Amino acid sequence: MANETRNLIIGAIIIWLVMGQGGTTTAPATTTTNDNVEQCAYAPTVQLAASNEYVSSTTDFGTWKYKLNGGGTSTDADGNFEVQKGSGLTVLVADSNSSTYYKSIWSPTISHCGLNSLNYPEVVEATAYEAKCFNDDGNPMNGTTYTNNLTIGTEGTRSIKCELTGVAKKGVPHGGVMIAEFNQSTYERDVLSLQWNGADASGVTTPGAYAVGVAGATTRTWEIPSFEGPSTIPFYLNSIKAKSGINPGIIETPTTTDYGDGILLRLYPKNCYEEEDVTPSEFRCGYEDLDNTFVAPGGTAKASAQIAEFLIGVD
């Protein structure tokens, strides 16, 4: 009888420990299936956050735009919503502030049940840049601001040193393209090259969103890497070669729509965006969408999308 009484007491203690003093149990955050695969007892949530890379106190970028498992686009005002553990979450960061900041595509990992606090700390503010080139005397010769021009001569070949002045706490996080526009009857297009910050830039196709502004003009385009901060970036426009029998001539007051034998250079940034001309829509990064429209923070038109413009006058 003593043993039976002792067993009853021990059993009662075990039941009390399992049930808890209030006689209730707390649902576990996870359960385990027969295949030893962790399952969430209730749907996980995410709390999305983002901050300016250089000004960490800047954190409000408006409504969040995201996709789950490659499906349709959803939005959320504060970035707090339910998901499934292991879901493929893709976010278009800073979509609501696209005129001020570059957008980015972010794919954070939903790693556990309960609250997943996720932060993207690399939002970069957009800005315009000053670029200028120099003649043999080291004088700036940007045709829209300065009076010094470049002399090439009949069938001559020249290289020009230039520089772009960076801006503190701002940048071009996804890189960009430099487009040179010039008279196709004056210069040999295919030999023209660009050296950017000590490395040869790769030639690429000019974006379809770009249209030349002068009859008879053509373009040569190069891709450049990302850059941020206040550093001055040197670059060279090499092998500016006049065609056989051509002596590039002067135009008294060159402009971006009437530059004679000058060379117009423009810089366009790559940006991320939602391509809505496919089903379902996709988050992409590039210079233009399928409608041949620029997707830069500054705007969709040729003039508003550029972040640098400079004209080399030739005499």
Q: Structural class, please?
A: mainly beta
Number of discrete helical segments: 2
Number of domains as seen in the coordinates: 2
In CATH terms, what is the fold-level topology of the largest domain?
Immunoglobulin-like
Sequence of strands across the biggest β-sheet: 10-11-17-13-14
So what's the overall shape? elongated
Largest sheet: 5 strands, antiparallel
Q: Let me know the average pLDDT.
A: 87
Q: How would you spell out the order of helices and strands?
A: HEEEEEEEEEEEEEEEEEEEEHE
What's the architecture of the largest domain, going by CATH?
Sandwich
Please write the CATH class name of the largest domain.
Mainly Beta
| Beta content | 35-45%
Extended strand count = 21
Low-confidence stretches: 5-28, 30-37
Fraction in helix = under 10%
Name its key features.
315 residues; Immunoglobulin-like; 2 helices; 21 strands; 40% strand
Word description of this protein:
- By secondary structure, the protein is mainly beta.
- It has two domains: 30-123, Immunoglobulin-like (Sandwich); 130-312, Immunoglobulin-like.
- 7% of the residues lie in helices and 40% in strands.
- It contains two helices and 21 strands.
- The model is unreliable at 5-28 and 30-37 (pLDDT under 50).
Concise overview:
The chain is mainly beta and 315 residues long. Helices cover 7% and strands 40% of the residues.
Q: Can you lay out the helices and strands and say which pair or pack?
A:
Elements: H1 2-19, E1 30-32, E2 38-40, E3 45-52, E4 64-68, E5 73-76, E6 80-82, E7 89-93, E8 104-106, E9 115-123, E10 130-134, E11 157-172, E12 176-183, E13 193-196, E14 199-200, E15 202-204, E16 217-224, E17 227-241, E18 263-269, E19 271-275, E20 282-286, H2 302-305, E21 308-312
Parallel strand pairs: 3-9
Antiparallel strand pairs: 1-2, 3-6, 4-5, 4-7, 7-8, 10-11, 11-17, 12-16, 12-18, 13-14, 13-17, 15-16, 18-21, 19-20
